[in-house]
Design a protein that fits this description.
Elements lengths: L2 E3 L2 E3 L2 H8 L3 H10 L6 E2 L5 E2 L2 H19 L1
Antiparallel strand pairs: 1-2, 3-4
């Protein structure tokens, strides 16, 4: 369940992976490569992702699928 901070919803790493259909390892690899420029973290230091972040991840997933198919 996303958390709400300053009227914006944030998703955990697990939720992000489930919603986008990628593995945690893939997500972390893409983060290291700079797919998402701004890293948000909660008070525990855990990463948080916005709906916009999820859209960027899904777009990258589709881009890769297109490359692999053709």
């Amino acid at each position: 369940m996303p958390i709400k901070i300053d009227s914006q919803h944030f998703y955990s790493t697990t939720e992000t992976c489930q919603k986008t259909g990628i593995s945690r390892a893939t997500l972390y690899r893409w983060l290291r490569k700079g797919l998402l420029s701004k890293q948000r973290k909660d008070r525990r230091g855990w990463r948080l992702f916005t709906a916009e972040d999820l859209q960027k991840i899904q777009a990258e997933t589709r881009r890769i699928e297109i490359i692999e198919k053709g």
